[in-house]
Structures are given as C-alpha cells and as structure tokens.
C-alpha cells in the first residue's frame, strides 16, 4: 500500500520535524555551553 510517493512525502515530513527538533535542541545546547 505504501507507494514511492508516499514514502518520499513521509521522509520530507520526518526531515522537517527532525530539523525543527535539532534547531530547538541546538539552541538549548548553545545556551548550556555559554553558561
């Protein structure tokens, strides 16, 4: 049932979510380094 197109869309959504999480986590790590 999963098509190539469906998989690529899920991959894009997952990558966007990972990027947002990495951005948030990165800010937290930067703040921790400064303190």
Keywords for this structure?
rod-shaped; 35 residues; mainly alpha
Short characterization:
By secondary structure, the chain is mainly alpha-helical. 89% of the residues lie in helices and 0% in strands. The protein has one helix at residues 4-34.
Description:
The protein is an all-alpha fold. Helix content is 89%, strand content 0%. It contains 1 helix and no strands. The longest helix is centred in the middle third of the chain and has 31 residues, at 4-34. The mean pLDDT is 80.
User: What's the count of strands?
Assistant: 0
The average pLDDT score comes to 80
Q: What coarse outline follows from CA principal-axis ratios? A: rod-shaped
> What share of residues are in beta strands?
under 5%
Biggest pleated-sheet summary:
none
Range of helix content: over 70%
Category from helices, strands and their pairing: mainly alpha
Q: How far from one another are the termini? A: 50 Å
Strand-and-helix sequence, N→C?
H
Unreliable runs: none
Q: Count helical runs.
A: 1
Radius of gyration: 15 Å
């Amino acid at each position: 049932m999963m098509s190539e197109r469906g998989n690529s869309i899920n991959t894009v959504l997952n990558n966007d979510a990972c990027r947002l999480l990495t951005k948030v986590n990165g800010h937290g790590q930067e703040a921790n380094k400064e303190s």
